[in-house]
Amino acid sequence: MSRTIAALATAPGIAGLNVVRISGEKAISIADKCFVGKTKLAEAKTHTIHYGNFKNGDTLIDTVTASTFLAPNSYTGEDTIEFGCHGGNIVAGQIVDALLAAGAVMPEPGEFTRTAFLNGKLDLTQVEAVADIIHSTSVAGALTSARQLIGEFTQRLKELRHGLIRTAGLLELELDFSEEDIELIDNSEVRARLVESQKYCNNLAEKFRASEVLRSGFIVAVAGFPNSGKSTLFNKLLQKNRAIVSEIEGTTRDYIEEDILLGDIKVRLIDTAGLRETEDIIEIAGIKLVESVLEQSNLVLVLNDASKGFNQSDELFITLKEKYPNSEFMLVQNKSDLLDKTADGVFVSAKTGEGTEKITDKIKTASKSSIDRLNDVLINKRHADLLRRTSLEIQRGIDAIDANMQNEIIAIDIRNATNTLGEITGDQWNEEVLAEIFSGFCIGK
Ligand SMILES: Nc1nc2c(ncn2[C@@H]2O[C@H](COP(=O)(O)OP(=O)(O)OP(=O)(O)O)[C@@H](O)[C@H]2O)c(=O)[nH]1
Ligand SMILES: [Mg+2]
How far is the CA of 216 from the centre of ligand 2 (A)? Predict the structure, then answer.
């Protein structure tokens, strides 16, 4: 079913300009019912801009510009008109209403972009890049999404996929000649290619965590025994008194999170409940929450109350480090203002702020190095899961070669891997996947 959809493409609110977009088979004829300019839009060339009055019946709503994008050369691949009108809450709404009254319908969330996908204008990773650009929280994140949007990631996946398809093809071709005992491809060569492709998939999948940093921020958790000064440090780094501080052990129950901008990167700071054996059920619940926080943290600052001894938290530090191998850890000796002498290590006073620049420096370098490895792609969970599955399927192919299985079997494993890769770009897709991806989009996108 082909529908003509119209919606506000810009954010609602007070602004200089707004853009209302209409796309679909009847976009031009519906737009012409409302637009009165020197030329009819039906007679206008593609990619031209026209000035005129926008009317709802006899009522003048605004003076507007109408930009024409004729199929297939538009964002959606359908005939599209973009009306540039004055900003504010009223005018754009009236323009949309007039277009709806003239025959357009309101889109589902993400329907413009969904149409673009279905018309082959964007693949799924580009669709996801659109969402990432809209929601990006850092310059680096936006730049990476932009590169993904122009299709660099897709290109690399396509090359990988075609390489595998060629290999499977050679194996299958050889089957046709098997009677004649002709060997077209050396299995050790196939094996080497598979190992190479698998490495490539694993490398990409590993970029998931770093991609999340660009997408949602670098997560830094403050952990340690009760009273070590976690909330005090949290407040100091935030430069505001957000968390309650007291000399009572077990003050922080829930975890508290706040975002700050360090350098170019959004950092999410999380203050957690002190870790200890306790009977208090609320405190126990808080300590359980700490686990989920540490699991997803990029950097964990384990705070030690140095006034009680420098080595007090060593065991805790080692245990946590082993339990959360994906996070980076830093042991911080706090309350240096109470000490006569310090030793090796990072000594700070959360209370006075002395030495805390060592922590912010560490956060800056750690967050920067985590995203330095990313340059042209933001791997999301969907990509990472599919890449890991591809890698497993390739592994089956490698195992089949090692077990001297028939080429037929090896080729099936490789075909499975290529199908899984195809799901990433959307060469293979289903409704469920699309629904999931577009659930995060707004009406006008
Ligand atoms: N002298 C000194 N006291 C500090 C310092 N940091 C924290 N304190 C004190 O230590 C006590 C505990 O501080 P909090 O920040 O509440 O400690 P916490 O680790 O969040 O404690 P819980 O939430 O109970 O786990 C308070 O009385 C703070 O004023 C410091 O650097 N120097
Ligand atoms: Mg606290």
Answer: 24
